[in-house]
């Protein structure tokens, strides 16, 4: 509900200025610029509302506000004008009715899993997952009596075959998967009847893929990554129907992993340049993938844009671009991986992704360090697996740097 005059958001004559209407435009690059401006203010940059709480005009109004999942001027754990602008922008970008922002990607993932599932329920999830999600599913869910079946997300029919009618509450997928860019067929996943379907699409923001277009119920992102795009906002977001987001809102209030207004402001700012960043990063990633494919010290390169990717045809069907992430395996295993990350000069050694700097990480030692050797093998992560998040530097410089590092890492082999 809108605050009464004199309460919540300050009165401002600029509110009469009409913002561009994104409803008449469908291209995601345009939506990224126009979305999240429903406040009607004249300002072009996102407005920051750092307050934790708001004045309540009356007890009756306060009672209504406390129970309204669309209210943004009651208490910031429930909602906040800056956070709401980010949520509205994400909903418009995803083609969703609503969205809810969280303090991190894992805040969003855990709210979906624990907010929807109860003791006795069953989840089907793929093996190829971000390690934090995998730990939540295999270690935390059993403590609450939630049964989880893991399948190979790249195998046709695997998700459907594992569904237990009447028991399976949720089917959870991640595509492209961290770190080896395995893909899930979204059309096949969306056709499953019965359980809710949720997809972590962090590696493929809405300018690349929109899971809801394929019949998926919930689209999840760690907005810390490509959506924010500047390594200065820790955010998660879930988009879906108004009914589903409202039901998750109630759990999110208790969970407490609410997005901070400052991070939401930075996330909204990042959305404005999402399209051009994805174009540049996708182009450089393809250039780098092709260059590394011919390197004698590189055993294999995984990038959806390469014809050699086992799911290249699927990538062409459900991805507008192929993204800025790639993975490759160095001949020489763990020792070569260590030498590689020590040899980069332009790229930075860090675990995140989607920002302006090119980042490299040795997956077995960082993002998936908690997995056992057998779990690493099941996820396709070898001792020489390197994940690259391509930044905004010139493609020739990125290629030169990583080829140099690969030369030094595998010099004794080739």
CATH class of the largest domain: Alpha Beta
- The percentage of residues in β strands lies in 5-15%
> CATH superfamily assignment of the largest domain?
Type I PLP-dependent aspartate aminotransferase-like (Major domain)
Write down the overall geometry. Answer: globular
Question: Strand pairing plus helix content: what structural class?
Answer: alpha/beta
Span between N and C termini? 66 Å
Total beta strand runs: 12
Major sheet: arrangement of strands: 1-7-6-5-4-2-3
Number of helical elements = 14
Q: Compute the average pLDDT.
A: 92
Helix content: 25-40%
pLDDT under 50 segments (min length 5)? 1-14
Q: List the secondary-structure elements in sequence, H or E.
A: HHHEHEHEHEHEEEHHHEHEHEEHEH
Enter the CATH topology name of the largest domain. Answer: Aspartate Aminotransferase, domain 2
Task: Give a description of the structure.
- With 414 residues, the protein is α/β, with parallel strands linked by helices.
- The protein folds into two domains: 17-271, Type I PLP-dependent aspartate aminotransferase-like (Major domain) (Aspartate Aminotransferase, domain 2, 3-Layer(aba) Sandwich), CATH 3.40.640; 275-409, Aspartate Aminotransferase, domain 1, CATH 3.90.1150.10.
- It has helices at residues 28-34, 59-66, 81-94, 105-116, 131-140, 158-162, 186-190, 242-255, 261-271, 274-293, 312-318, 333-343, 373-378, 395-409; strands spanning 98-102, 122-126, 147-151, 168-174, 196-200, 218-221, 236-240, 298-302, 325-330, 348-349, 359-362, 385-389.
- The strands form two sheets. It has a seven-stranded mixed beta sheet, sandwiched between helices. Strands 8-9-12-11-10 form a five-stranded mixed beta sheet, with helices on one face.
- Strand 4, helix 7 and strand 5 form a beta-alpha-beta unit.
- Helix 4 (105-116) runs parallel beside helix 5 (131-140) and helix 4 (105-116) packs across helix 8.
- The protein is globular.
- The relative contact order is 0.12.
């Amino acid at each position: 509900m809108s605050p009464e005059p004199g309460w919540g958001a300050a009165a401002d004559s600029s509110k009469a200025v009409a913002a561009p209407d994104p409803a008449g435009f469908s291209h995601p690059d345009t939506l990224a610029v126009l979305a999240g401006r429903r406040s009607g203010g004249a300002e072009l940059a996102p407005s920051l509302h750092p307050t934790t709480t708001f004045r309540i005009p009356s007890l009756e109004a306060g009672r209504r506000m406390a129970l309204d999942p669309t209210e943004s001027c009651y208490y910031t754990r429930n909602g906040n004008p800056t956070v709401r602008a980010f949520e509205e922008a994400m909903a418009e970008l995803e083609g969703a009715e609503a969205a809810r922002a969280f303090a991190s990607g894992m805040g969003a993932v855990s709210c979906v899993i624990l907010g929807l599932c109860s003791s006795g329920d069953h989840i089907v999830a793929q093996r190829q997952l971000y390690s934090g999600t995998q730990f939540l599913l295999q270690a935390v869910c059993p403590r609450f009596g939630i049964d989880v079946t893991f399948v190979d997300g790249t195998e046709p029919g695997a998700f459907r075959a594992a569904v237990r009618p009447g028991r399976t509450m949720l089917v959870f997928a991640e595509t492209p998967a961290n770190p080896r860019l395995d893909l899930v067929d979204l059309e096949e996943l969306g056709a499953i009847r019965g359980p809710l379907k949720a997809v972590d699409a962090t590696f493929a923001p809405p300018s690349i893929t929109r899971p809801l277009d394929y019949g998926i119920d919930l689209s999840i992102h760690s907005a810390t990554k490509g959506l924010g795009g500047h390594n200065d906002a820790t955010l998660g977001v879930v988009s879906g129907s108004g009914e589903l987001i409202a039901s998750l809102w109630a759990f999110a209030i208790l969970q407490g992993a609410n997005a901070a207004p400052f991070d939401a402001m930075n996330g909204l700012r990042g959305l404005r340049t999402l399209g051009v960043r994805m174009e540049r990063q996708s182009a450089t990633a393809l250039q780098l993938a092709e260059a590394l494919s011919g390197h004698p010290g590189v055993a294999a390169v995984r990038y959806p844009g390469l014809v050699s990717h086992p799911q290249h045809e699927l990538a062409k069907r459900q991805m507008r671009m192929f993204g800025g992430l790639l993975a490759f395996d160095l001949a020489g295993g763990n020792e070569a991986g260590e030498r590689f990350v020590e040899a980069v000069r332009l790229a930075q050694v860090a675990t995140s992704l989607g920002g302006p700097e090119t980042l490299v990480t040795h997956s077995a030692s960082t993002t998936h360090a908690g997995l056992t050797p057998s779990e690493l093998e099941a996820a396709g992560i070898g001792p020489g697996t390197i994940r690259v998040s391509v930044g905004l530097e010139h493609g020739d410089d990125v290629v030169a740097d990583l080829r140099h590092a690969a030369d030094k890492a595998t010099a004794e082999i080739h």
